[in-house]
Amino acid sequence: MTATIRARRAAVTTAVTTLALGATLASAPAQAAATSSSENTARTSGTAGLKGVDYDTWQRDVKAVIDEARPYVTERTRDPRGRKQAVVLDIDNSSLETDFHWTTFPTPAIRSVLELVRYAHERGAAVFFVTARPGILESVTAYNLRAVGYPVSGVYVRHFPDLFQGVSTYKTAKRAEIEAKGYTIIANIGNNTTDLVGGHAERTFKLPDYDGKLS
């Protein structure tokens, strides 16, 4: 991981933490209104992310991957093979539009990802989120996901001693934990190779990260 990416992630985490600590002062209707306004602005103004990635291009590229995933999810959930099924997702720029709304709380969902996840859940799949965010953000992260419409079966964040593991090692271990609970992970979705390597998923779907700009 480059120093630039580490610095950017630290900035995003700091911003999310600050917003999260202040979130209890805002009402849910006010938060929803702010989110809707932010989404509309981004979708009509060609907003760029923290590293200059074009929002509309990113949305199209994400949707192309999700369009590939949907027929597979449809077919796989039609045949559960007698086991509980699950979908596992990364969060930042994989489930939430973090780099495009890093000062907004709740951070908006990526619409095409949200639609696929809700579809899978309606067809019986549990939905787990495995993120490299630190444990201090667990409650606000779960709140954010639910507030923007995600079904949440579980959220995994990095507590001690996970903070000292490599991200891919940590995420692989958490998927193994989900499997140990009796789930078959039919799809693992993320925008970084560290979200996807290590096995413990039947299929992986990589969203765009533009050489680490949206990690």
TrEMBL record:
Residues 1-32 form the signal peptide. InterPro entries: Acid_phosphat_B-like, HAD-like_sf, HAD_sf, TAT_signal. The keyword Magnesium does not apply. Pfam families: Acid_phosphat_B. PROSITE patterns: TAT. Keywords: Signal. It comes from the Bacteria. This is Secreted acid phosphatase.
